[in-house]
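Re: that backbone. Tokens:
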């Protein structure tokens, strides 16, 4: 219990430092973009028409991912109540702005301290979530192919990618064969062994129906954020085809994840600005929309995450303390 609390305090201090650094970055970008772009973007915020819809889409994607977490825990036959399952998942978003989202392991500690859940199975769920997220944003990025090729080719390639990845993950012999080949490369051996251990520890998560269900939920959740980005661009008068925006958002998310920067800060924004510039949007014009979408998809949910974390401490901790005291009195 004490170790979990200390870990949480450590991550909170780090998130505050990261938020401060991000604020300095955003202020610098805003000043560089010029007053004209800032006034245009602020007019969208003041109009009150687009921003609520954007936040609604972000929250929709958020709760879809929370349901995916609950679905995975039920697949492993956990007995955590649905309310506590959602609460701990939403609270973990307080630590989104951490390297590789490592702050999410806090929910493993919170659940284990209350319900004795398996740490290995928790990490298997986290692995399944990250894998599904990676495939989902990759598929969003593939949408950019329709800018260069016929839509039927895009659908064919997307379907082939989904089928291949699903086959390699859910079909054990194929997975082991790929793992054996990858293990021959010395730098990859340790990672391959770790991935195989996660897959084996919760094999039911990687059967066809649970895996595809989780992937579908991830795709819808990330698409909500991409649509929110499209609405922000449209709100400030930037005309970019939606399918191109899906490509920009999906590819930038992958860059942010690969950079291992906390929350992808800096790397994801840079990728979005460069890709928007590639389709004809001046960088100075794109700065404010990029900051707005990051504020909505990263900082908005992070702040709400802290609220849910506080709610966990107030409601759940108090409930368990009351149960413990009753047992001691009896």
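Recovered sequence:
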């Amino acid at each position: 219990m004490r170790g979990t609390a200390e870990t949480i305090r450590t991550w909170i201090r780090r998130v505050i430092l990261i938020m401060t650094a991000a604020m300095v970055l955003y202020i610098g970008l805003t000043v560089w973009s010029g007053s004209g772009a800032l006034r245009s973007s602020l007019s969208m915020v003041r109009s009150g028409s687009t921003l609520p819809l954007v936040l609604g889409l972000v929250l929709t994607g958020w709760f879809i991912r929370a349901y995916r977490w609950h679905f995975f825990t039920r697949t492993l036959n956990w007995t955590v109540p649905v309310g506590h399952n959602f609460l701990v998942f939403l609270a973990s978003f307080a630590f989104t702005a951490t390297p590789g989202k490592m702050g999410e392991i806090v929910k493993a500690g919170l659940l284990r301290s209350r319900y004795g859940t398996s740490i290995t199975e928790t990490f298997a769920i986290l692995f399944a979530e990250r894998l599904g997220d990676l495939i989902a944003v990759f598929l969003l990025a593939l949408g950019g192919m329709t800018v260069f090729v016929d839509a039927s080719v895009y659908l064919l390639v997307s379907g082939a990618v989904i089928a291949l990845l699903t086959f390699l993950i859910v079909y054990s012999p194929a997975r082991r064969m790929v793992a054996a080949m990858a293990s021959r490369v010395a730098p990859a051996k340790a990672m391959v062994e770790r991935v195989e251990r996660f897959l084996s520890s919760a094999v039911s998560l990687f059967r066809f129906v649970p895996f595809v269900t989780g992937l579908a939920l991830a795709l819808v959740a990330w698409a909500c954020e991409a649509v929110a980005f499209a609405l922000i661009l449209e709100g400030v008068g930037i005309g970019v085809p939606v399918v191109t925006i899906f490509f920009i958002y999906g590819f930038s998310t992958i860059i942010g994840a690969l950079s291992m920067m906390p929350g992808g800060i800096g790397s994801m924004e840079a990728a979005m600005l460069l890709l928007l510039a590639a389709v004809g949007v001046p960088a100075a014009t794109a700065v404010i929309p990029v900051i707005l979408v990051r504020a909505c998809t990263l900082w908005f949910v992070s702040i709400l995450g802290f609220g849910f974390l506080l709610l966990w401490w107030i409601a759940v901790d108090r409930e368990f303390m009351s149960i413990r005291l009753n047992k001691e009195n009896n």
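The two ends are 23 Å apart (CA to CA). Residues 283-329 form the longest helix (47 residues).
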